[in-house]
Amino acid sequence: xxxxxxxxxxxxxxxxxxxxxxxxxxxxxxxxxxxxxxxxxxxxxxxxxxxxxxxxxxxxxxxxxxxxxxxxxxxxxxxxxxxxxxxxxxxxxxxxxxxxxxxxxxxxxxxxxxxxxxxxxxxxxxxxxxxxxxxxxxxxxxxxxxxxxxxxxxxxxxxxxxxxxxxxxxxxxxxxxxxxxxxxxxxxxxxxxxxxxxxxxxxxxxxxxxxxxxxxxxxxxxxxxxxxxxxxxxxxxxxxxx
Length: 242
Fold this sequence. Notes:
With 242 residues, this protein is of the alpha+beta class. The chain contains eight helices and 13 strands.
């Protein structure tokens, strides 16, 4: 697992002529996911790239999403408003206090949220355009910094990941937020956050499906496969699976 993490990378490139490309890692050697914006075509796209394909004329890229700049930024604007309102409602529904959190014996990691974590974990080069996990990183720095939650860990406007120790394993419990301007501490259970994330995915799918295009079909098919919502009618399901 650690060796796989060390292979992961992020690479970002931008030129006025071509636009930007953000390459995201894959655990499969020679394969990565790319998010890009083509300045010439004024188009946003998502595609998989397989560098292992070296046969002349064979396609290395498999496009799963393409959308014009106007429609893409309109989608982002509309979705941003909906997301921000939804996440605020979610967080404010779960106000708590330090006493309740300590009663549950939550464990947090103080290293991963520290200022030094990024520098020690990530090797950056090419003016910050290429990120990769350091080969010589001491993973004990993470393992040794798990501790039971204390008041000093609750810094303003910070998110902590809460765990519980059970039968020799750490299990993810949720997320702890402290907002200075709200003067409170909030804890979102992981099951509630997962439900929220699923609802956001449903909202995104519904928006894209309301304005269907051939260029977004593979992405919508992928989302449908992941979500598998029963409320879609049989005609919609058949069209997506064809």
